[in-house]
Amino acid sequence: MQKYLVALSGGADSVALLLWLLERDMxxxxxxxxxxxxxxxxxxxxAFVRNLCQRRGVKLFVxxxxxxxxxxxxxxxxxxxxxxxxxEWFARLICQEQLAGVAVGHHCEDNAETLLLNLARGCGxxxxxxxxxxxxxxxxxxxxxLLNWTKTQILSFxxxxxxxxxxxxxxxxxxxxxxxxxxxxxxxLSQINPCAAQSINLTAQRLTEAYALYRMGVExxxxxxxxREEHLMGQTFQxxxxxxxxxxxxxxxxxxxxxxxxxxxxxxxxxxTKMGIGGYVETAEGIVTRSTDRLIFGPRPQALGQxxxxxxxxxxxxxxxxLICGKAHLTLELLQRSEVQSLKAARHVALIDAxxxxxxxxxxxxxxxxxxxxxxxxxxxxxxxxxxxxxRSRIEKALALLLTDDVGPVWLAGExxxxxxxxxxxxxxxxxxxxx
Length: 436
What we know:
Layout: E1 4-7, H1 12-23, E2 27-34, H2 40-56, E3 60-64, H3 67-74, H4 78-97, E4 101-103, H5 108-121, E5 134-137, E6 140-143, H6 151-161, H7 177-192, H8 196-224, E7 228-232, E8 235-241, H9 242-247, H10 251-259, H11 269-273, E9 280-282, E10 286-290, E11 294-299, E12 308-310, E13 320-325, E14 328-336, E15 349-353, E16 361-364, E17 371-372, E18 381-382, H12 383-389, H13 394-398, E19 402-404, E20 409-412, E21 416-417, E22 429-435
């Protein structure tokens, strides 16, 4: 039998969850978060949970969080910070205790609130599916065995088991959106249908099935729009021909489905469709940008952090040497000039005169205002201007890598070598650098 970490606040829902799972021998441990947001009441809840677990023979983990400091540091709402801290800790405990996942006490009315909240904020079909009995978050399982229970059933179950619980005083505060739905909106809907919450819950289940069919259609439309993976500097993004996407009859639906996993909302779609070449829209989680003829999107790019330095002495004749630069890999080969049949190279390959290198190779991101002399040009150019003129997207600019020696630029990786490194009739040794 699988065992779970039980998220135990001490409220009626979590206490009923604990008892229900104990009857089935599915409790591995319980976890209680003290966010210190309600003064003495927070300490009361912790004391209640400790006593409950001691009486029931349940292994308990308790963690105190400095929630307010985290809110001030992150700029997120109290609710968002508390949720993030809670699930980060749960993930560590699940791994530590080798449990199947975390069990939470969400019930029928909670699911109805979720669907209505998503509907009010504006959401895609996925938002209307509400919560699922089993789902995954950050790689671990979230189990909601009471999802089809009503609050009345939960309270009856606790009365039958003769078990007490604590009540969070903030649950009555209708300044919180969920509480407003719980105490004012759903009771009004119940005047139309006494089983409004159960009906909304059933609708969410039906929409879950519809969503599976809908996703099949989205995947087929994505194929028609030629959506593909784009690998840039070792990182993976998605891309599709700009005009094909803009001309698609499902444009806004596809954009929402593609971008919402990266934190984009429906309200941002007009900004995406109006982007010019080089334009971009970003969130805390992702970015979407436009190159000459493609839409490119994905997680926020992780540029190279620390500069990588390597002596050419480490590269031996005829042997490849690999240099790891963040998520990008560079292979270096030292060749005799006679071994190089053609000086024409693809964008991701550089051929330079090895004897012209001064000091070690440095790999880093370009500095603001930094210039180089692109191969074939007489004068220098700002690297940022060069990339703009090449119609590179915001993502490509953010991921740009520059190889330099003690004198200056050697190669703007994947773009152009510096004229200074040109191979001539006097060249004896060639350094071939390949960007993977």
